[in-house]
């Protein structure tokens, strides 16, 4: 049995390097199918995508690993959520609504389960690595940098080749680019949550211990990620660049003024210059690049003037939220407690906290959000006492995600961005763990 768990742990670590390629391949698959049938993906309406099948297989392996390890804390967290989901579905049997799709509902809770289980599985993987905390953090930083390098480069190359999806195709025309990623929200959230730590890794890089190739790689990755977020052109993408850039600029200035450390500030300027150089190179392929970025940046203000601030900030999600809230309010006490289910709704709200509350009720919200709140607030309390630069970068990441969960996100139910949100929560716990080999989630 121990050999099996060891092999699974090796695979889970390898999966960190496989993961960023799944959504690129998935987007290419969707694009191929759309061109083959000359229809949109929504019209084709396939039940599964290749990446989802792979990740659901990995979910089975996660579950097998936890059972073989007999992780009681994980099981005591997961089982009540499963019970809440069953009770939520039962509500549709006894008090049915106009429609209900069991398959949609099962798929949705499976996505949530995947991201939740990541917390328990990867914490065990970290604990069982024969590495010190400092060495493990170094290895994780390499994973983060590699992930961003793959994801951002794929979008930059797609833009240069004039391929891939636009971020928006609405009443205001075509704007932004998301490369081969089918979900703009997903890729934005992944870049957003990993960017601050990636920048910080370069700012604190020991030049004496790295060669020129690695140095260029460490400069390129955050610069390419910032450029990519500008090309994506959503409100959240620009917010991610602003928070990461301004936040780390402020911390770098603090180090310069109070500790006479000038290197972080110099390196931050290097990243900004590298980003401008990358954008300049891309402008050779598209003379409209800077105009496109400016248009995306100004578009929120244009929508606010034409259609109101609420529509500009929520991109129409308030209508989906209002519809779900009405069903929830009229559902009665049972559905207030256990929710109206995802399967009863035609459209996803795309505001995670409200999805948990309305789809799974007050009881579901308590059990489903508690693990995230526990880790999140646990990190914040320790961060207040000891504010290192790396911890500040993680704080920026988690703060952006917390905002995203309320305003515009699709994280907790996304097997792409949700994975990295869980991963960053573990990173935060690892930073302040006195003895991570013995501490539990």
Describe this entry's structure for a reader.
By secondary structure, the chain is mostly helical. The chain has a two-stranded antiparallel ribbon with strand order 1-2. The radius of gyration is 22 Å and the shape is globular. The protein starts with a helix and ends in a 10-residue tail after the last helix.
What would you say about this model in short?
With 441 residues, the protein is mainly alpha-helical. Helix content is 76%, strand content 3%.
Question: Topology of this structure?
Answer:
Blueprint: H1 2-37, H2 41-44, H3 50-69, H4 72-94, H5 102-128, H6 133-160, E1 165-170, E2 173-179, H7 184-203, H8 212-232, H9 235-259, H10 263-283, H11 289-307, H12 309-314, H13 317-329, H14 333-338, H15 352-385, H16 389-407, H17 417-431
Antiparallel strand pairs: 1-2
Helix pairs in contact: 1-3, 1-5, 1-6, 3-5, 4-5, 4-15, 5-17, 6-7, 6-8, 7-8, 7-9, 7-10, 7-16, 7-17, 8-9, 8-10, 9-10, 9-16, 13-15, 15-16, 15-17, 16-17
Cα-based radius of gyration, to the nearest Å = 22 Å
General shape: globular
Q: What is the tally of beta strands?
A: 2
In terms of DSSP E residues, the strand content is: under 5%
> For the residues shown, what is the average pLDDT?
90
Any low-confidence stretches, pLDDT <50, length ≥5? none
How far apart are the termini? 23 Å
The percent range for helix content is over 70%
| Strand line-up of the largest beta sheet | 1-2
Structural class comes to: mainly alpha
Describe the largest sheet.
2 strands, antiparallel
Give me the number of helical elements. Answer: 17
Give helix and strand order, one letter per element, not per position: HHHHHHEEHHHHHHHHHHH
